[in-house]
Amino acid sequence: QSVLQGIVLLPLRATCLIFLLLLAWLFALIATFCQPERGSAPLKGWRRRMIQTTLSGLTHAAFFIMGFQVTVKGKVASLQEAPIFVAAPHSSFFDAIICALTGMPSIVSRAENLSTPVFGRILSSLQPIAVYRQDPDSRKKTVAEITKRALSRGQWPQVI
């Protein structure tokens, strides 16, 4: 019986996940349409709210479809309380759970991730801080950008 459930559930879950992924890509495309170059200016107004609400909801739905149910105990820190979140060790797709629970903050990511199909557009909508690993000054530039955003008094989203 469990094999039969797997035969039915796997394609159903995969189809739902693909649908959610494409929907997230569409919302990310709309939010970043006609925006300045990556990372040069923060998303504001309806664009930022759309990313925060829709991508967070779609990420919650995707994890629910995969069988994860996450509950938050306590209160998530606001942008004024904590302009920077630290999630460690960050080594898996579980980092997306933290992003969804914290309102889709900006993330620090290697620059190569921004050029991947579908995921790159979704990642770009989060206004990431891109790390160029081949650049010897990349570490200094990343720290400077994190500091700039943390001190922006709410113009940029939280950084994780």
UniProtKB/TrEMBL annotation:
One of its GO terms (molecular function) is 1-acylglycerophosphocholine O-acyltransferase activity. Its main location: membrane. InterPro entries: Plipid/glycerol_acylTrfase. GO terms for cellular component: endoplasmic reticulum; membrane. The chain crosses the membrane at residues 12-34. Keywords: Acyltransferase, Lipid metabolism, Membrane, Transferase, Transmembrane, Transmembrane helix. GO terms for biological process: lipid metabolic process. It comes from the Eukaryota. It holds the Pfam family Acyltransferase. It is found in: Membrane. The keyword Lipid metabolism applies. SUPFAM superfamilies: Glycerol-3-phosphate (1)-acyltransferase. Residues 70-156 form the Phospholipid/glycerol acyltransferase domain. Belongs to the 1-acyl-sn-glycerol-3-phosphate acyltransferase family. This is PCAT2 acyltransferase. It comes from Grallaria varia.
